[in-house]
Amino acid sequence: MVEKASAGTRERLLAAAEQLLLTEPYDEVSVRAVCAAAGANPAAVHYHFGSKEALVGALLEARLGPLWAEGLAQATGGRDSAPAVVDTILAPFQKLAADPLGRLHLRLLARFVLGRHLTSWQGPWFRMDSWTGLLPELPANVARRRWMLAFDLIIMRFGSPEIDDHGMPEPAYAALRNFVVAGLTAPGEQS
């Protein structure tokens, strides 16, 4: 029963942080405010997550991970499959960009990934080592570098404040997709 209550508190903290971050800038949302909004003990964020950054990292994984999990679990590696993998990655970004809560998640993701926050990602699709095998024709360090560049570009573009209620315009989306596919499938370079 205690474990169930703990899971309930954890989810309330995630939901409270999400709601506060919809209306307040990240730097103005305090751990104390999250705990108060969740009706939790003032130390609950530290108990369940360790820090505000870890709380937001867990929020992003909980909300975004399921969007990619199924499609990426079926992804196969290789140069020929790169366009399908990129489509599997980009489709949820476009959907998120067209929704206010989704745009919040994308802005937070951009802040954490592009700011190189030391978040300890738990889900396999949030860790770079999960991606290197999808480019088996390249040395692992080269594949890793390409995926990092691809994700930086995708997250930067979708985390931009220029994205509106309609998501990314189709010509920009197509250009981004083609550019990422080209970068991932370009001939190999030295490691």
Automatic annotation (TrEMBL):
<dbReference type="Pfam" id="PF00440">
    <property type="entry name" value="TetR_N"/>
</dbReference>
<feature type="domain" description="HTH tetR-type">
    <location>
        <begin position="7"/>
        <end position="67"/>
    </location>
</feature>
<dbReference type="InterPro" id="IPR050109">
    <property type="entry name" value="HTH-type_TetR-like_transc_reg"/>
</dbReference>
<dbReference type="GO" id="GO:0003700">
    <property type="term" value="F:DNA-binding transcription factor activity"/>
</dbReference>
<dbReference type="InterPro" id="IPR001647">
    <property type="entry name" value="HTH_TetR"/>
</dbReference>
<feature type="DNA-binding region" description="H-T-H motif">
    <location>
        <begin position="30"/>
        <end position="49"/>
    </location>
</feature>
<keyword id="KW-0238">DNA-binding</keyword>
<dbReference type="InterPro" id="IPR009057">
    <property type="entry name" value="Homeodomain-like_sf"/>
</dbReference>
<protein>
    <submittedName>
        <fullName>TetR family transcriptional regulator</fullName>
    </submittedName>
</protein>
<dbReference type="GO" id="GO:0000976">
    <property type="term" value="F:transcription cis-regulatory region binding"/>
</dbReference>
